[in-house]
Design brief:
Largest sheet: none
Oligomer: single chain
Distance between the termini: 54 Å
Strand content: under 5%
Number of helices: 15
Number of strands: 0
Structural class: mainly alpha
Radius of gyration: 21 Å
Helix content: over 70%
């Protein structure tokens, strides 16, 4: 009876948690990175990446269920792969979080600069815009999860409203002929950014506790919850690629700009631009806050820094300082940072490590009998091969 109540009463909440964890600032890079390939090739890449991330998410869930408690990915790696696995996961976690923070701070600088220019006519350097952004929202990070949670609810509401308005009002202006472009050789360019845009895996331990290890609810939450972002991304791709000519995307790609910048340069309809700017702001801030708060907790636990007033200042400085410095030195690094986050950080932490842990647990330690991902060793090998292929493409 209790399990049934949990399953029926909490499934929607779990689905929304997974969906909310995925949808964010990655959307601002996806159209720019996929434009050279075209709409149809991009759809295929999105579907492949979604299947890959669902598969690895279920593999991570399988490992978590072996231990029957809420433990981090790092602890799972230590228990299955030893101290070497723990060290690798720790380093990759740092790399992934810092890459994402660099991307968000760099994109925020462009948004703040454009906003001030629009309302005051004053032109501000993007690096200074990023610094103002960090100072403003760094205060929320210092105040803690309570303040962030309250503010993030308002931002999520704004994100949903601006997205719906942008899609609904932009629909009549889509030029279908722009969606006919296809370049399958360029399709792999979008893979790293798509992979990191389906990154819900750090939520798996919390979901396991949330559903009290009820396998059916957990699997449904992961599959359905990640399918919602897939739909949102595909609609977003169709809209932006149908509004912006290919030449404008090439310019944005060369300059490392977000999708709304390409939209601004190509579309002369002011209200579409205003809504797009609002959407970009909400997407950046919600992603920035969620990653930053998680990063603070990660460093607090890993470095043993207590969350005293002085400790929180130190943690916030560690989280915001290096990304801000990087964004000041390389203000157009948004797309590069997003690609590195997906092409190395997410692929290793959310792809290779879960498959390795399952291989070791299933076939060496004999830890679990129920396999959430069927197919045995061939499927795990396919996960390894795809992950290494994506990393090779990123290196090339």
């Amino acid at each position: 009876m209790t399990q049934d109540l949990i399953k029926k009463g909490s499934l929607l909440g779990g689905i929304l948690l997974v969906a909310g964890c995925c949808i964010g600032a990655g959307m601002l890079g996806l159209p720019v990175l996929s434009a050279m390939a075209g709409f149809k090739p991009s759809v295929v890449m999105f579907l492949i990446c979604w299947l890959f991330m669902v598969c690895t998410g279920l593999l991570l869930l399988e490992v978590n269920l072996w231990f029957g408690e809420e433990i981090s990915i790092i602890t799972m790696a230590e228990r299955t792969l030893g101290k070497g696995g723990k060290a690798v996961s720790w380093l990759v976690f740092l790399f992934l979080f810092y890459s994402l923070m660099v991307a968000y701070v760099a994109a925020s600088g462009s948004l703040v600069s454009d906003f001030l220019n629009q309302w005051t006519g004053y032109s501000l350097h993007h690096g200074i815009g990023g610094a103002l952004f960090c100072l403003l929202f760094g205060l929320l990070i210092y105040l803690g999860i309570g303040a962030v949670d309250w503010f993030n609810r308002l931002l999520m509401f704004g994100l949903i409203i601006s997205y719906v308005c942008l899609v609904g009002l932009g629909l009549p202006h889509v030029d279908v002929s722009l969606l006919k472009h296809q370049d399958w050789e360029a399709a792999t360019l979008v893979l790293p950014a798509v992979i990191v845009s389906f990154g819900f895996h750090n939520l798996v331990p919390s979901l396991t506790t949330y559903f009290k290890s009820h396998v059916g609810s957990l699997v449904k939450a992961i599959v359905i919850g990640s399918a919602i972002p897939l739909s949102v991304y595909l609609i977003w791709e169709w809209l932006i690629l149908g509004l912006v000519p290919l030449g404008s995307f090439q310019e944005a790609l060369d300059q490392g700009e977000i999708a709304t910048e390409a939209l601004k340069n190509a579309v002369g309809i002011s209200w579409i631009l205003d809504i797009a700017q609002a959407f970009a702001f909400f997407a950046i801030v919600t992603s920035f806050l969620s990653v930053a708060v998680s990063f603070v907790d990660f460093l607090s636990d890993g470095l043993g820094i207590q969350k005293t007033p002085r400790g929180k200042v130190l943690l916030a400085s560690l989280v915001l300082g290096p990304p801000l410095l990087c964004a000041l030195l390389y203000p157009t690094i948004f797309l590069q940072a997003l690609n590195y986050a997906g092409g190395f950080g997410a692929v290793i932490l959310f792809g290779i490590l879960p498959a390795l842990m399952v291989w070791k647990g299933r076939y060496t330690q004999k830890m679990g009998k129920r396999q959430l991902v069927p197919g045995g060793k061939p499927v795990l090998i396919a996960v390894f091969l795809f992950a290494f292929w994506v990393m090779a493409l990123q290196l090339i």
